[in-house]
Amino acid sequence: MLEFKGMSAYPGKVSGKLCIVHNLEEFSHCNTGDVILFNKIKPNAILAKMASAILAIHGGITSHAAIVARESKTPAIVGLKEDILEHVKDGDQIEVDANEGIIILN
């Protein structure tokens, strides 16, 4: 079990399949209900609404990802360290505790 920490941008607890997005063209492989990890792109409201949770490597609680999460009422953690990408891959089952800013990879 691995644990990663960031800043909670909108509270909530969910678990689901991880979908990593590096650019908007990659978004097509994500499904409704996935936990979406945005790396170096800004999520828009339409993309974020299909996510069960939003994760963002860059940004803080006033970042674009945080604002989109609050507007869509989607649990979110921002400000993750880039080394998370060394430990996770598309399709991993993860738990998101956006109340505490913690992600758990089982």
Q: What does this protein look like?
A:
The protein has one domain: Phosphohistidine domain (Glucose Oxidase, domain 1, 3-Layer(bba) Sandwich). It is 13% helix and 35% strand. It has helices spanning 45-49, 64-72, and strands at 2-5, 7-10, 13-21, 35-38, 53-56, 76-78, 93-97, 102-105. An eight-stranded mixed beta sheet has the order 1-8-7-3-4-5-6-2.
How are the secondary structure elements laid out?
Elements: E1 2-5, E2 7-10, E3 13-21, E4 35-38, H1 45-49, E5 53-56, H2 64-72, E6 76-78, E7 93-97, E8 102-105
Parallel strand pairs: 3-4, 4-5, 5-6
Antiparallel strand pairs: 1-8, 2-6, 3-7, 7-8
Largest sheet: 8 strands, mixed
What's the CATH first level? Alpha Beta
Task: Please state the overall shape, judged from the principal axes of the Cα atoms.
Answer: globular
- Low-confidence regions: none
Give a short summary of the structure:
This protein is mostly beta strands and 106 residues long. It has a single domain (2-105), classed as Glucose Oxidase, domain 1 (3-Layer(bba) Sandwich), CATH 3.50.30.10.
Q: What are the main properties of this structure?
A:
single chain; 106 residues; mainly beta; Glucose Oxidase, domain 1; eight-stranded mixed beta sheet; 2 helices; 13% helix
